[in-house]
Amino acid sequence: MGNRPWGHLDRLSTLLLVIVVDVQLVLGLLLYFVWSPLTQSAMTDMGAAMKDAPVRKMAVEHPVMMLGAIALVHAARVMAKRANKDSARFRRTFICLGVALLLFYFGASWPWSEYPRPWLRMPG
Questions:
Q1: Of 23, 49, 55, 74, which residue is least crowded by CB atoms under 10 Å?
Q2: Contact call for residues 24 and 62 (beta carbons, < 8 A)
Q3: With contact defined as beta carbons under 8 Å apart, do 32 and 55 qualify?
Q4: Which residues are CB-contacts of 26 (< 8 A; sequence separation ≥ 6)?
Q5: Is the separation of the CB atoms in 39 and 58 below 8 Å?
Q6: CB of 35 within 8 A of CB of 58?
Q7: What gap in Å lies between CA 120 and CA 108, rounded to an integer?
Q8: Alpha-carbon distance 23 to 77, whole Å?
Q9: CA–CA dist 11, 116 (Å, integer)
Q10: pLDDT tens digits, one per residue of 49-88
């Protein structure tokens, strides 16, 4: 947010961020639609899934928040490109990425949260 010009590293960092969240989106979609037994069982009876808070969190709330956050990351990059002044680029990027970060944080299922899910599942 400083008073400096929008430079090559700023453009590169936003591009890398977009690439990282897009790769994460592809992995998340594969987990959601192909590999997750939780979401597959939720899809068979969505009414029952909506009544079960941990299942609803992973089947509905988590994907919606993550998609919203990814959309905000893309919007930040587009708005930074279209801004006329560097101060506007920094401000728009800061706001969009800040809200995206909050959505990522509150949409994630942390091991210490109310409905914890492990980050990695080890076989055995």
A1: 23
A2: no
A3: no
A4: none
A5: yes
A6: no
A7: 14
A8: 16
A9: 36
A10: 999 988 999 899 999 999 999 999 999 999 999 999 999 9
CA end-to-end span of the chain, whole Å?
Answer: 48
Least confident range from 6-10, 37-41, 89-93: namely 37-41
How big is the CA angle at 80 (ends 74 and 84), to the nearest 5 degrees?
150
Both tokens assigned to 98: 């800040």
Q: Report the greatest alpha carbon distance in the chain.
A: 56
Query: pTM, whole model, 2 decimals?
Result: 0.87
The amino acid that residue 122 corresponds to is M
Residue that the structure tokens 């790769």 belong to: 23
